[in-house]
Amino acid sequence: MTKKQKQALRFSKIIIIAVIIMVLIFTGCIVYVFYKKGAEPTVIIASFFTFMTGEVLALAKLKLSEISIEGKNIKKEEEEKKDGSIV
Q1: Cα separation, 17 vs 25, whole angstroms
Q2: What does the pLDDT look like over 41-78, one tens digit per residue?
Q3: At 20, is the pLDDT very low, low, confident or very high (cuts 50, 70, 90)?
Q4: How far apart are CA 58 and CA 80, in angstroms?
Q5: Dihedral of alpha carbons 62, 63, 68, 74, sign
Q6: N or C terminus of the chain with fewer C-beta within 10 Å?
Q7: Any long-range contacts for 47-55 (C-beta under 8 Å, 24+ apart)?
């Protein structure tokens, strides 16, 4: 694994951990608001979880594209090795 791949992996883990922490904090705040006011802010809740889901899906899409590109590069290198050994 290259240094760039390790940085990307570390970055994605940090993002996932940050998302989980934000969701826990948000949930605690909503529980507090519900306790104090007796009503839940449904629009804010829906918007927040839609945003967080979008962020996680975008991160997953980026990761899958990196894996796909890496797989193509490995396949290309293997083909080049095969072509070089035949000659």
Answers
A1: 12
A2: 899 999 999 999 998 999 888 888 888 887 788 877 77
A3: very high
A4: 33
A5: positive
A6: C
A7: 49/23, 52/19, 52/22, 52/23, 55/15, 55/19
Q: How many whole angstroms separate alpha carbon 12 and alpha carbon 10?
A: 6
Burial of residue 67 (CB within 10 Å: 0-12, 13-18, 19+) is exposed
Q: CB count, 10 Å around CB of 19?
A: 16
Q: Residue 62 is encoded by which pair of tokens?
A: 């980026």
Cα 18 to Cα 55: distance, rounded to the nearest angstrom: 11
